[in-house]
Amino acid sequence: ADLGAGTGYFLGFLAAAVGGEGAVIGLDVDSELIDFMNQRAELEGWDNVEARQVATDDPGLESGSVDRVLTVNTWHHISNREAYAGRLAEALVEGGAIYVVDFTRESPHGPPENHRLTPEQVISELEAGGLEAELIEEELPYQYVIVAK
Description:
Elements: E1 2-3, H1 11-18, E2 24-28, H2 31-44, E3 49-53, E4 66-72, H3 81-91, E5 92-103, H4 119-128, E6 133-136, E7 143-148
Parallel strand pairs: 1-2, 2-3, 4-5
Antiparallel strand pairs: 5-7, 6-7
């Protein structure tokens, strides 16, 4: 699942990665973006992609229904992130993982600095949701990556 998928930038990459036996779900709160993603998936021939509108406080994923959740530049938009992390944890299959990519405080891009979260904050929120989380060593210039299992 791509949480906060927006226009679906990552959907094609994810669709190719999971192949014909897998499925990708693009999740967003904006109905116009959902329509756009579904149209894009049809146009691109991504038969294993579906876009769904979700509430701001619930990812709308069934218990044990996803292997991986990717959320890029979105985590800072979620309110009550600890509870949201718990809902994501419940949606994971055994051995599943959540990848959170978000802007560093020093980045010249992204949301206003007072909306940015430190990796330590994100780890704490994910752990409060019942996950084990850690910072992954990556060489992204303006973002960090957290994995939670």
